[in-house]
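Example (one chain per record):
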Amino acid sequence: MSRYVHGYSEREAERLHDQAGAVCDLLHHDTRYPPGSLVLEAGCGVGAQTVTLARQSEQARFVSVDISPESLEKARALAAGHGLRHVEFRQADLFALPFAEASFDHVFVCFVLEHLADPEGALACLGRVLKPGGTITVIEGDHGSCYFHPEGAAALQAWRCLVESQARLGGDSLIGRRLFPLLQQAGFQKVRVSPRVIYGDHSLPVLVDSFWGRTIIPMVEGVKEKALAMGLVDEERWRLGLRELHEVIERKDGTFNYTFFKAVAVR
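Predicted structure:
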């Protein structure tokens, strides 16, 4: 597994919650599980997606796992705060899941594969614990789909620092476009992928603030030290890039566009 490029700071936990809120309906409006289903949420992190999943399928049961004990502590507290009693949290590595073969009716994984050096291997491990005929839902972004106006050269460089630093750590922030072949190669059937496009301008002030202001910009800010250490940019250029990214929401003509990809497949 590659290192988590964004780190585990309190600010990163806050960003994950902001991101989940900004794209909740876009990504999850069609995610529902039947009563009595046992669902594995793989890589639950701080529980940002868990709350939505559990609320939308109140009669299903969820086992949410993550490799980070610190993230799990936050996830448990969040679930308890929302009164969710049908979610169990466990520490586990996706490549060494402590479950018998065909244990789960469904599997859900969101914003996890991009951080793994072997996403196909991870999908194969998840397939092992999924019952025949059960579904796997995978959601990932694709940083190559990000467009914005005004498009300053320094802002583009800062964005590429995010992509390159993650690649050097063994991840792939462009993985959204690869979900179809990855699931096929891992042995899944009936793979269906749908793009989920998010667009914002100043006629949508809440979305501009929640997605660009409190999700995209903090995500870039979070790789500053890695980008500088890797020699991808110097301090002055980095500051200019961040200033240009802020202009997207500060200027009245600023716009942005980003695409997530949601795949559903059957074992």
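Caption: The longest strand covers residues 130-141.
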